[in-house]
Amino acid sequence: MRSSLPFLEAFLFLLGPAAGDVTTLSPEPSPRGSLPLTEFSPRFISGSSSSSRGSSSSGFGFSSGSGSVSQFSNFTGSKDDRGTCVCSVALPDTTFPVERVERLETTAHILSENIKTELSKVKEYVHLISIYEKRLSNLTVRVEVMEKDTISYTELDFELIKIEVREMEKLIIRLKSSFVGSSEIVDQLEVEIRNMTLLLENLETLDKNNVLTIRREIAILKNRLKECEAAKGEDVPATPPPPAPGTCAHGGVVNVSKPTIVQLNWRGFAYKYGAWGRDYSPQNPDNELYWVAPLNTDGRYLQYYRLYNTMDDLLLYVNARENQITYGQGSGIAVYNKNMYVNWHNTHSIAKVNLTTNKVAVTQILPDAAYNNRFSYAGVGWQDIDLAVDENGLWVIYSTEASTGNIVISKLNDTTLVVLNTWHTKQYKPSVSNAFMVCGVLYATRTLNTRTEEIFYYYDTNTGKEGRLNIVMHKMQEKLQSVNYHPFDQKLYVYNDGYLLNYDVIFGQQPH
């Protein structure tokens, strides 16, 4: 029938039959020719489209070309005045979900685009990984080459430096022979060249990256040697030879050398306060027991110290004996005859510590001594009581309330720590940056600037005389936390903001 079921035809078209099939709606004749059409059976029928009129049918069936049939219920049908079949169908819940399919297609499209984007990223990452893999492989090869070549290159550099140093040694020998008597400048250069040789050996063992630093030092020494060679024809006043180690056959301190930077203290940059030196034993003066005692970072407590049997051990940080104490205060530390002398924490007492056992052997009150930053040195706290050693033994430098802060010097019995004798000076202790003793003479320093100190004052306990000096001391950092003199090697051991320095002491000629 033509256009009799428009809705069903549209619906069947949406379902999309198989290719070549034609959808037809055929009412089946009702039994016995009854007129009311109460049921229809829509079917998918393969073949040409046709329609027929008839009586009521039991239902509609949809038949595909394969012969399958889907039955629908819940529909009504009738015939109008013109004999046209009209039916009403209520589709079941199994209606094809067109909107859902559309949403699914949209989502699938979005996912497909996202996947394409991620795949492009993956391809890019794979490409980058291959590049980095090649770079890493090349870097590995280069590192292996550097590991092999660096040693030989560094060794070659050190060999060249050694040759230069040997040439300078030969030159200094020629210069000495050309002078009448002895020249102070040439002697000092000889000492510096010797120090350079030792430093070169140490650096070759410790750090092979300091070749450039050594080259700079060599260049400076070469220039100085050239200046000396140019001036060798001039008259140079002869200087007396240094006095025998451990004796006082000289005219006192007249100068000090430039500092030799030994190394940073073993605890690091943060430990700016402390002291170091070499043990002096009159019975065994050439004993090489070195000690390093950095204070805690508060600049007050002495908790750990180390002992080294040789300077090489100290330079290489090997074979150290590390000890701990809990009662040291300030950097006014001294070591004499294998005993360490310290200010007992929070008191005006002195403690004697046996370095062999790390046990306190003796404690003794220092009469009337001010303590706990009452009269410490300028810029250095907790050093009201400063112990010192010289050719004559053990000394203590301090102040009292009665002296109104002026320096007081006392000679101590190194066994019992009893005061043997006392001298009062006119020098105000808080205006002094540090002090040391040489042959019974107190030498005091003050700060000129961040790189220069001056030995400006002396007090001779042998004669009771005091006076002014003008001896310049160069330094590496701003503050001198401690200065210790060693009678045998005639050096000053200085703790300079965490760095260990030493100076050669130059003595004047003894008056006749």
TrEMBL record:
<feature type="coiled-coil region">
    <location>
        <begin position="186"/>
        <end position="231"/>
    </location>
</feature>
<dbReference type="InterPro" id="IPR050605">
    <property type="entry name" value="Olfactomedin-like_domain"/>
</dbReference>
<feature type="domain" description="Olfactomedin-like">
    <location>
        <begin position="247"/>
        <end position="509"/>
    </location>
</feature>
<protein>
    <submittedName>
        <fullName>Olfactomedin 4</fullName>
    </submittedName>
</protein>
<dbReference type="InterPro" id="IPR003112">
    <property type="entry name" value="Olfac-like_dom"/>
</dbReference>
<dbReference type="Pfam" id="PF02191">
    <property type="entry name" value="OLF"/>
</dbReference>
<keyword id="KW-0732">Signal</keyword>
<feature type="region of interest" description="Disordered">
    <location>
        <begin position="46"/>
        <end position="66"/>
    </location>
</feature>
<feature type="signal peptide">
    <location>
        <begin position="1"/>
        <end position="20"/>
    </location>
</feature>
<dbReference type="GO" id="GO:0005615">
    <property type="term" value="C:extracellular space"/>
</dbReference>
<keyword id="KW-0964">Secreted</keyword>
<keyword id="KW-0175">Coiled coil</keyword>
<dbReference type="GO" id="GO:0007165">
    <property type="term" value="P:signal transduction"/>
</dbReference>
